Amino acid sequence: MKKSTIQIGGSAFLLYEIDTVVVGSGAASLNCADHLYSFGHRDLAIVTEKIGGGTSNNTGSDKQTYYKLSVSGKEPDSPYEMAKSLFDGGAMHGDLALIEATMSAQEFFHLVQIGVQFPHNSMGGFVGYKTDHDPRQRATSAGPWTSNQMFTCLYREVEKKGIPIFDEHDVVALLVDADRCVGLIAIDKKQVQEKSRGLVFFKAADIVFGVGGPGGLYQTSVYPKVHIGAIGLALDVGAVARNLTESQYGLASIQFRWNVSGTYQQVIPRYISTDAEGKDEQEFLNPYFPTMGKLATDVFLKGYQWPFDPRKIPNYGSSLVDVLVYIETVVKGRRVYMDFRENPRGDNRIGAFSFADLEPEAFRYLENSNALFGTPIERLGKMNPLAIELYANNGIDIRREPLEVAVCAQHNNGGLAGDMWWESNIRHLYPVGEVNGSHGVYRPGGSALNSGQVGSYRAAVRIARAAKDKPIATETFERIAQERGAHLIDLLQKAVGAETGVAVTDFRQEFQQRMTQYGSHIRALHQAEQALDEAYAQIKRVDQQRCQDAAEIPVFLQNRHLVLAHAAYLEAICAYLKAGGGSRGSYLVMDPAGEPVLDDLGEAWRYKTEEPALREQVLETVYRDGAFVSHWKPRRPIPEEESWFENVWGRYLRGEIFEETGEI
Asked: Max CA-CA distance within the chain?
């Protein structure tokens, strides 16, 4: 690593020249840095907004799942079988599915070796269980904090190896020469009060881009508050995105952001809504269910049918609960709570709560758990006391107060496109982790964690083993950096202390509200088109933001890429709906001529069913000439691997395999 300065407008700014910059400090980024070092690639550094601030370290569930090839027991499995499970979810390229399957065991055992506590039996077998969309028993878990353990162990490896970390450095721009990424600009948040405003420049041969999902785009989000996401930085320089339509939504608490899946639902809490001031308490689910037994069973089923899924709406399916929560919170502007202190209250029409009225699946589960007694909080104390403790540790005592919830954005199956080495169409830019859009419509639970580890390993191999391009000329880099840097400096001079313009917090709230209302799990073409027009209008006002003081500079600069990203997501949604796309994955497409969600909700709540043919297509979106455009591409089938050992060995020794890129 070489440290110097770059001159812009008569001032000197720090410049670091590093072979590889790893952006982000989640499990994918740390894994890539760890592997790069192990491959002997030592000129690297991590640039991160905050160590431990991402989703890896701050999210979980009652049993957070990791998906991988079956490696124990009698049940047969193979990389091709696992690839088929990934591929069958629709809109996923077959070569990426095969890579994620083939390398899943290797990366799983890497995590085991560095200390992640995945359970095994006395014979050493890492046993598994079935997760959603999983025909085998490939799932495993290290408990509620699986990804947190992954972060902790990987971070320990990075520290042990002495890999440099630029903490509190928020990346604000990628530097590109034609179709090649050559560096980035970050802001040292500890230096924003200085004349330099903390701007720091990095020249790099390769950039690993592990910035996570689009947590900052939504008003109701279960992404950690400290996690914003930065996909817009790559979109801004022409990186192709894939399947931005495919996000996952589910019920989550909103004060402390946490998925309320698993036993939180299986103990059957009481659902209530109030007005904005916490008054006018109502049992809002009661009018829409034929019996209390059906209502209570649906709440129970939300435990392992947690993500919103339009296939689980008909015949009073469990996802009807999500629709009704959305109507209360977004349409009516009320607040919704899960109350663990009482069983659901019935009425004269649907009857009172009774275990005997539960459907067999729910009754047997609670019976086998010895939990056919008491109140929801008493059952939760029996079945999963750590679930109570988790909220208590975050200032919420669900034994004494209800838990406010909403349907929240949780994970983006789409993201930036990458080839078989996770390299973007912007060469030398490697999107890894959630920001990489390798997933399709439906993915097995826990496959995102596997994908992040496999993809980051692939990027590390490619960077360490492939032949290097000729370094960019110093004068070319300086010209690009100076032009981009001068523009940012000018913007900040105008924004800090400005007397006119919109406050940065208000500017963010505008696009977050738009995304939650029109770009979340309830979608309609005319609303999405209107929202997209409004998004482009807001982009034109991005430079009219004002910072109250220099401390708001990071928010100002984040808003610049977030507002761009939200337009990309809305464009993809519009393109999908214009192509006749219907309800699938984790979203409902409204259609006056469609199927009724529920007769009691009226004609406004009809939806279009899925168009299965679109599962054979992948939707790509790219920024060109100031606007986003989308196009469809047939998904690639699962390929046949070359398997003759001597041939593979020879190509490996000659380094030929590292030069193959495949398609984006």
From this structure: 79
Lookup: tokens for 613: 């043919």
Q: What percent of the chain is modeled with pLDDT above 90?
A: 95
Q: How confident is the model at residue 63 (pLDDT cuts 50, 70, 90)?
A: confident
* Predicted TM-score of the model (pTM): 0.96
- Structure tokens given for 235: 């979109």
Judged against a pLDDT cut of 80, whether residue 62 lies above it is answered with: no
Sheet strands (E) in 261-417: 270-274, 335-339, 403-412, 415-416
253 plus 395 within the same structural domain: yes
CA separation for the pair 133, 88 (Å, rounded): 9
Overall number of domains in the chain? 2
Indicate if 254 and 400 belong to the same structural domain: yes
Crossing angle (nearest 10°) for helices 94-102 and 447-465: 90
Alpha-carbon distances, residue 577 vs 522, 541, 574, 605, 613 (angstroms):
12, 27, 5, 17, 14
Q: Residue 97: phi, psi to the nearest 5?
A: -60, -40
CB 82 within 8 A of CB 69: yes
Q: How many CB atoms lie within 10 A of CB 349?
A: 11
- Structural domain boundaries, residue 525: 498-634
pLDDT tens digit sequence for 183-217: 999 999 999 999 999 999 999 999 999 999 999 99
Contacts of 210 (CB under 8 A, 6+ apart): 22, 23, 24, 25, 26, 28, 29, 32, 431, 432, 433, 435, 452, 456
Task: Decide if 234 is inside a domain.
Answer: no
**Residue 109 to residues 142, 153, 154, 186, 192, Cα–Cα distance (Å):** 13, 13, 13, 34, 42
Question: And the tokens for 624?
Answer: 């060109």
CATH at residue 552? 1.20.58.100
φ, ψ at 282 (rounded to 5°): -135, 145
Residues 593-600: contacts with CB under 8 Å, at least 24 apart = 595/314, 597/313, 597/320, 597/323, 598/288, 598/316, 598/320, 598/323, 600/287, 600/288
3-state SS class at 378: helix
pLDDT exceeds 80 at position 218: yes
